[in-house]
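Researcher: I need the complex structure. Ligand is magnesium ion. Inputs:
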Amino acid sequence: MKRNTRAREGEDRLRAVAEALPDLLFVLDEDGTYIDVVSSSTTLLYAEAHRLVGQRMHDVLPRESADLFLRTVRETLKSQKSRILEYSLQVPAGRRFFEGRTAPLRTKRGDKRRVVWISRDITERKGLEDRLRAQVAKTSRAYRELKRTQEQLVRSEKFALIGMLIAGVAHELNNPLNVMYGNLKLLAEGASDPDPRRGRFIADAVIAAERARNVMEEFRTFARDVSDGEFVDLHECLEEALSGLRGGLAPGIRVVIERGRIPKVRCIAHQMRQVFSNLLRNAAEAIDGDGSIGVKTRAGRGRVIVDVSDTGRGISPDFLKRLFEPFQTTKPVGQGMGLGLAVSAMILHRHGGAVAYRRRKGGGSVFRISLPAGSTTEAT
Ligand SMILES: Nc1ncnc2c1ncn2[C@@H]1O[C@H](COP(=O)(O)OP(=O)(O)OP(=O)(O)O)[C@@H](O)[C@H]1O
Ligand SMILES: [Mg+2]
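Model: Output:
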């Protein structure tokens, strides 16, 4: 008798403690029946405590929640270990988030096994966490945006500077080159030199000077305003660039062209030709032995896209950071200036376009050019 009274006192004391706590306390049996419910709050319980006791969770709660809770109860009993879960429930106080903790209870032989379940309202914390997460995402988005703008600015300035530099140097070299070229041509036409080797030297020099003049002419136009350009069919530029390349193409290299329907683009045609020929030449140079170069054109969202791909050796991640920088080359001294991509990027930039690199699936590279579509006129 005395023992019973002491046990009752202990139980009452525990109950008083539980009621004083902000948490909800449930005792559930293995079938999910509420044996006991203690809460200091009426608005956090799904239904009033006296209406829950004796009911099965599946008779009171939404199906999904009841399933989850019963599963947790059974896992607790099976493992004889405490479980922690987060869940949300629509209660009189609104949609609240809870953290539930379970522990197996020792029961008398023959009784159904039981679990004690304590739930804590974590809605405030959850809200804070969500807001914090959103803030972090927003901040890192803003940071990325800032970085991109900064890089674009640096690139624009760099391009402007390279353009000015190249155009300036070309302008300065133009006059002496013209004098050399003119005089060489006079020399070549004039004399029947007694020494035949001299004639050949002069003829070679004329060819070299002509090439130099052409390069200079192209460079001089770097300062030209793109709005002076005409509406150009990029397929023609591509064809011209390709025919310039074909002579020097190794026999094992195939070129596959997929022409989309693209509108004309306002551009300085020979600069665009130069871009294509730089990319095509790089593609050809990246292929050892057999391989293929693909060119694919298409239009989309007011832009014209040209993909130049190759099955070549690809580009190392280490080099990628410097890919479009001037004077960056992996070729031996004297073989490449490392200017092809920098010049191409600059030309495209001045045309309101861009070039980007990506790895080709299955090995090799893809350079994607995008340019603003200049008009609605369809080219074929
Ligand atoms: N399609 C490609 N496949 C593999 N590597 C490439 C490709 N295109 C460019 N590269 C790498 O990028 C480097 C820079 O190319 P870029 O055209 O700017 O200069 P270059 O070809 O070295 O010299 P230049 O074009 O001035 O003669 C190349 O040396 C090469 O290593
Ligand atoms: Mg190159």
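Model: Summary of the prediction. The chain has ten helices and 14 strands.
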